[in-house]
């Protein structure tokens, strides 16, 4: 690997451009052909006022011209335009201020999921068939069966309304991070634990583990040093889809907990037909997905020298 | 098939899940038989009651019987889950089978489409599609199907690619059978196991997607309800009236749990070595 890494990353990033372009085009026309417009409200504007508004935001141009205009301003100046919903604020500015909370939330949730999910999976595999294993399995199935808003409402009911330990919403103090992170991280935790369990069980039956036992290694060392290391590949492979589910899951969690992140803006932007904002947020989400998939592939290749990074498949 | 039934019956968790799901489905299908009150009639004098003999799960902010709403909500949630799972499996199988069997340029082109869909933030696209197709049953079906077929396409393509190399396909080809016939009559029956497993897991995922859409207010219009819309209403009044989210939430959770446990069981029986694909 080593030498080929940089060209590989570059190739993958270049390959992402057409994908993002297709995504952008699809969303652009989907939004435009959807019924309703950005300034249809209860108030009906006089014709000349409506025309002035349309001219101000370039909505009077033919659709293809609007598309090309948007495309060129994004590609040439990295300018996503002005929000329709929040007068006088640019999409760049709004994404700039709402991306950090979203990334923090997603990152912490991923850490939470891996930090608890891996030991839980190892424990279940080591004690396969015991009550510890069954409860880990139950937890894993329950974790993927709980919609995040139910986790959120249970946590809020218990830990903020009854016990008063954490604030029920908003993103102000350090402690306000706790409930959203648990809510977002529970599902990936369940998935990780389950995968680690399956993978470790498979590894534990291999010859070199028996050799390690025969040499008199301690159980902890065998589990975490020998077995886990070789069981990590499938776990890392799934981190890509996991990051994806964190990305799409985050916006619901953000809505519920009133986190001032990207997701909170998205639904409002869609409902208000804030075209530039919708485009901006979708592209940022798409880019995050692409980058996390790339990171996963690179991580896999680093952990396992047998895996070669191939660009042929794109 | 006989051994499948035998093994399945021995899988207690899966069997219990199946029985539970059967009860829920019957309840949903024959909702009028199992409810005494209407799900839509508002009775303001009885609003926001906690569970009692008259209203087993209490009443909502408009005085509607919550139990009836949960039972009728099951209709929506289950049918969306099952129909979209079947639709996405059909679309995915079609694309995956053609790509895998034909190979070459057709494969490359189809997989390019799949890759693009794979990178789409699915829930976001589902939200956009619901806006485009309008709120309601049809819009939700299209939105969820279009964002969930990709996983099946990838799975079926891989399975077909593997089967193509096998002797029975080769001998079918040497007998001069047509490609379509080989695919439909020989390959598909052989890869049905993993496809069924994938279908079983798709149902709870799609029920959850529907509940997400409903939760953020893009689901059915009132007075119709799904478990997601009920949870949405409950969430807003959660502080003072926790029963409004507790009952629909628990029913939804236990149902999803049963589907996932059933999926696990079916996989254990049909396809013991297969790994679950957790595609987003």
Description:
The complex is a heterodimer of chains A (314) and B (280). Chain A has eleven helices and no strands. Chain A has helices spanning 5-33, 47-56, 63-77, 91-126, 131-145, 148-162, 178-204, 207-214, 219-257, 262-271, 275-303. Chain A is globular, with a radius of gyration of 24 Å. The two termini of chain A are 17 Å apart. Chain B is elongated. Residues 274-280 of chain B have low confidence and may be disordered. At the A-B interface, helix 1, helix 5, helix 6, helix 9 and helix 10 of A face helix 5, helix 6, helix 10, helix 11 and helix 12 of B.
Indicate the percent of residues in helices of chain A. over 70%
Distance between the termini of chain B: 32 Å
**Beta-strand proportion of chain A:** under 5%
CATH homologous superfamily title of chain B: MetI-like
What's the mean pLDDT score of chain B? 81
CATH architecture designation of chain A: Orthogonal Bundle
CATH-derived topology of chain B: MetI-like fold
Number of domains of chain B: 1
| Low-confidence runs of chain B | 274-280
Strand content of chain B: under 5%
Question: What's the Cα radius of gyration of chain A?
Answer: 24 Å
Compute the average pLDDT of chain A.
Answer: 80
Using only C-alpha atoms, the radius of gyration of chain B works out to 22 Å
Major beta sheet summary of chain B = none
Order of helices and strands of chain B: HHHHHHHHHHHH
């Amino acid at each position: 690997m080593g030498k080929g890494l940089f060209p590989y990353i570059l190739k993958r990033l270049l390959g992402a451009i057409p994908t993002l372009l297709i995504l952008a085009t699809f969303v652009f026309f989907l939004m435009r052909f959807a019924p309703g417009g950005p300034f249809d409200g209860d108030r009906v504007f006089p014709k000349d006022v409506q025309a002035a508004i349309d001219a101000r935001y370039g909505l009077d141009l033919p659709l293809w011209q609007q598309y090309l205009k948007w495309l060129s301003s994004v590609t040439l100046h990295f300018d996503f335009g002005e929000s329709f919903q929040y007068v006088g604020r640019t999409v760049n500015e709004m994404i700039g201020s709402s991306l950090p909370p979203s990334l923090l939330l997603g990152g912490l949730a991923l850490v939470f999921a891996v930090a608890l999910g891996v030991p839980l999976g190892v424990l279940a595999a080591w004690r396969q068939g015991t009550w510890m294993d069954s409860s880990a399995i139950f937890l894993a199935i329950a974790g993927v069966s709980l919609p995040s808003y139910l986790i959120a409402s249970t946590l809020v009911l218990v830990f903020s309304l009854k016990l008063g330990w954490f604030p029920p919403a908003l993103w102000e103090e350090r402690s306000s991070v706790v409930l959203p992170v648990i809510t977002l991280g529970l599902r990936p935790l369940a998935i990780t634990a389950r995968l680690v369990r399956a993978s470790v069980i498979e590894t534990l039956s291999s010859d070199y583990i028996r050799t390690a036992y025969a040499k008199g290694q301690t159980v902890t060392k065998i589990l975490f040093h020998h077995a886990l290391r070789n069981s990590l590949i499938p776990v890392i492979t799934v981190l890509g889809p996991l990051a994806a589910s964190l990305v799409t899951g985050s916006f619901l969690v953000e809505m519920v907990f009133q986190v001032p992140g990207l997701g909170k803006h998205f639904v409002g932007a869609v409902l208000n037909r804030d075209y530039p904002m919708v485009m901006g947020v979708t592209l940022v989400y798409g880019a995050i997905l692409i980058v996390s998939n790339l990171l996963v592939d690179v991580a896999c290749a680093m952990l396992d020298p047998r895996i070669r990074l191939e660009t042929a498949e794109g | 098939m006989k051994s499948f039934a035998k093994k399945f019956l021995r899988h207690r968790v899966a069997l219990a899940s199946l029985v539970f799901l059967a009860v829920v489905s019957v309840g949903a299908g024959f909702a009028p038989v199992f409810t005494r009150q209407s799900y839509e009639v508002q009775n303001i004098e009885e609003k926001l009651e906690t569970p009692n003999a008259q209203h087993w799960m209490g009443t909502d902010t408009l005085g509607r019987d919550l139990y009836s709403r949960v039972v009728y909500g099951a209709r929506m949630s289950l049918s969306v889950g099952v129909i979209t799972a079947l639709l996405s499996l059909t679309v995915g199988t079609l694309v995956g089978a053609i790509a895998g069997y034909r190979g070459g340029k057709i494969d490359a082109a189809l997989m390019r489409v799949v890759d693009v869909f794979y990178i789409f933030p699915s829930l976001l696209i589902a939200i956009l599609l619901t806006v485009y197709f309008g709120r309601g049953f049809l819009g939700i079906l299209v939105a969820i199907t279009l964002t969930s077929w990709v996983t099946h396409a990838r799975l079926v393509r891989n399975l077909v690619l593997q089967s193509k190399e096998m002797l029975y396909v080769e001998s079918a080809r040497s007998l001069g059978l047509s490609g379509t016939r080989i695919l439909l009559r020989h390959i598909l029956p052989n890869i049905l196991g993993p496809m069924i497993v994938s279908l079983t897991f798709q149902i709870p995922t799609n029920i959850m997607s529907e509940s997400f859409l409903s939760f953020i207010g893009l689901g059915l219009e009132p007075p119709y309800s799904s478990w997601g819309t009920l949870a949405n209403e409950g969430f807003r009044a959660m502080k003072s009236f926790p029963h409004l989210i507790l009952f629909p939430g628990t029913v939804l959770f236990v149902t999803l749990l049963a589907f996932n446990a059933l999926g696990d069981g079916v996989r254990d029986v049909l396809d013991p070595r297969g790994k679950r694909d957790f595609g987003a």
